[in-house]
Amino acid sequence: MITYICISLTYIFFYRACKAQGIDRSTLPYVGYFQPYGAYITLVYMIIIEGIFGYTVFIPGRWSVADFFPPYTMAFVTILLYFGWKLYHRTKFVSPLEADLVWEKPQIDAYEAAFTDPPARFRDEIWTLLTRRKKEKENHMGEDIS
User: What is d(CA 67, CA 57) in angstroms, rounded to the nearest whole number?
Assistant: First the structure.
């Protein structure tokens, strides 16, 4: 759950940076149709689930340290490690206007331009396996080596 909280926060910060820098999301290779609202909903939902995951320990008469630590330890450790890193290394929070969204864009665009064939669909790969059709052998560059 902590992973999904981090993923949602990362997307929310990315969205804010795109908006602040005037980058249109429709120009990106992948577009989430329900974003940014999906990220906000997921963030709230996962925080609620993380908070009530070990709720039974808070019922009067049911308190136990052994029952408290498994559900909540990683949440505290994650927060401690994050802010500990920020303090120790004296890093700052990056504002949406200062976020670097295009540093490696030319290399990524050149890499993606090298692929001329559309990617294989999962269902086509499964169909090939089920019908036992032999797939052409290709090397790591996509060149036929049959």
Answer: 6
Orientation of helix 37-52 relative to helix 2-21, angle to 10°: 150
Phi and psi torsions of 2, nearest 5°: -65, -35
Cα 60 to Cα 30, 49, 77, distances in angstroms: 49, 20, 26
The whole-angstrom separation of Cα 43 and Cα 2 is 10
> What distance in Å separates the CA atoms of residue 86 and residue 5, rounded to the nearest whole number?
19
For the entire predicted model, the pTM comes to: 0.71
Ordered per-residue pLDDT tens for the chain, 146 residues:
899 999 999 999 999 999 999 999 888 878 888 989 999 999 999 999 998 988 889 899 988 888 888 889 999 999 999 999 999 999 999 999 999 988 888 898 888 888 777 767 888 888 888 887 655 555 555 566 55
